[in-house]
Amino acid sequence: MLSNLLDPIRGARIAHLIETDGPGGAERMVADMAGELAAGGCPGVAFLPENREGWLGRELAAVGVEVEHYRLERPFSPRCVRELAAAFRAHRIDIAHRHEFTMAIYNAWAARLAHVPHVITMHGSRYYAARWQRRIAMRFAVVSSNGVVAVSQDLAAHLRRDLHVRDKAIDVIPNGVRPRAFQNPTLRLELGLAPDDRIVLAVGNLYSVKGHLQLIEALALLPAAARAHVVIAGRGDLAAALSARAAVLGVSERVHLLGLRADIPNLLADADLFVHPSLAEGLPLALLEAMFAGRAIVASDVGEIGRALTGGAGLLVPPGNPPALAACIQRLLDHPSEAGALGAFAARRAASVYGLDSMVARYAHIYGNVLRRPAGARRTAS
Question: 254-266: per-residue pLDDT in tens?
């Protein structure tokens, strides 16, 4: 099915550019999409920052995508722009696709120098809006682009308002994932939990915006009889602070920080609930993986999450509200039949709306439209 949808752009050489290479949602999306496009006959080259973690580079290499590294030595680097433009020409790039603010700006300049059409995807942060200089630079990137995509309606609305661009200038393409099979779930054994202990799983890097502190505070509001354990898969600078807060609240024995994990499907298989307590978000891949796995979900109503869970695919709570979070967790732990129904509906909705093939096909449609335009044609966003 996807192979047929890629026929109009088969053979096109696509550059994928992103400013980070650690494990995260945007990076996971880049790896998945670049791999699918390469497998479908659209060879790609990923441009990643040098001397970083290397996680994304390894993921891309594993799916057959060539990786190049760029040097960004200072906030403003004409040298980086020239090197990217030269690399586009050397690799005979047909279209450059960049992700997030920094590469949106640099790639806009580099693509102009190399006479390559370019597309932007923004994944969920408005940090470009914090300073007027960033807004001007971001507007330049958007206006000069051949296509701009936001992963959520909420982010698209912010971009239109912040940058003063017309509605049709921003397309919305939700993230998509491919369901990953699990072997034998081992989380309960790993943590030494009893059969009647309940696992409340969260997946996400340990940043304050992910709301893990509020999740721990919600755990402290649950009665001991609930036997709930909060398990968080992710790494980040807040690990010590989260552990300290759990100690103050007297729930240390029921908070488990797993660090970075590659076996998310196995963790989901052992979870009783999946909780995504973010304070701000686009459309998190971890949430979509939980939907595909058929887990009951409690999540903050931010970004695209409310739309993803519409119709009964999960329970929504206001962001930053531990009592509301605790109440919904308790509700589903007390009513396993409701939790099961929510999980089953979530799995059906994920399969119909949030598959990786659907996401890639929609990007391929944009690529095709861009490549069919006469050379030099620009999309006017203002």
Answer: 999 999 998 999 9
